[in-house]
Amino acid sequence: MNDLPWPLKALVLTVFVVLYYKYAKSALFALCRRAAHLLPFGRRWDASERGSVLELAAAGASHVLVVAVLVLVTGIDLTRFAAGFDRPGLIALGAAIGVGEVALGSLLCRVLIEGVQAAGRRRVGSVAGGARGGARSGARGEMRGARTAPATAGGTMDGAVESGERMRQWLGLSRGGWIRHHLKTMEVVSLPLALALTATQVGSEEVVFRGLVLSWLREAGPVLAIGISCLLFTVMQVFLMSSWRAAMFPVVGAIVMGVTHSVLFWHFPVLIPLVVAHVTFFLFAVA
Fold it and tell me: Whole-prediction pTM value?
């Protein structure tokens, strides 16, 4: 399939990403949840915990299979991107990149949440203001003028408390969907096993969206190849999330990480620091 023009390659990759990351993984996770009630696990794990561990293990194994299938489809030799295992500097660089991406992603998420909340408050205030109009405005205006300072202070405090509560609710939503099986697994299994399962899954995503997608679309040029890779990587985050609010955190993180990693890989085609950055980002994000 290497003789295909790049638009058809992009179409093949898009269909593959949707079929696997949305439909195949959904069916796989449903199977894992059913198996959690049937397999003889220890009593110290409840059904939700068993299901989460199975989901994460199945996701990692299926991601490795996806890499193998895409290697056969694209004909790309991944060994040429595998240098760096013996270079601690590259690993440290990857960890630093991951920490920086977490900081930037968190800042952008905070700005977006504050913006959405501010827009909501403006809409509520506009509706309430219209309903209060009429003949009462003069008298109420005098009463408000006499109590300007206390009302403002109380309103600011109430607004800050309400904003903080909404932020906590939003953060709670973000820990659902496909992120749940990472969180549950880290709670119930040993840390080395949880790290190994997480690294297998997110490392495979780097191989897919940077090592394979970018390399296969290289003839399209940097703008299109990076744009398609980032778009597919970002859209994939939305699948299996409960709502757009829950998906906002992984989507913002995917945009930050996708652009950064794609640009780096385009100029320096080495996967090891990108895998380390991805794992670091993920661990900080779900911790």
Answer: 0.81
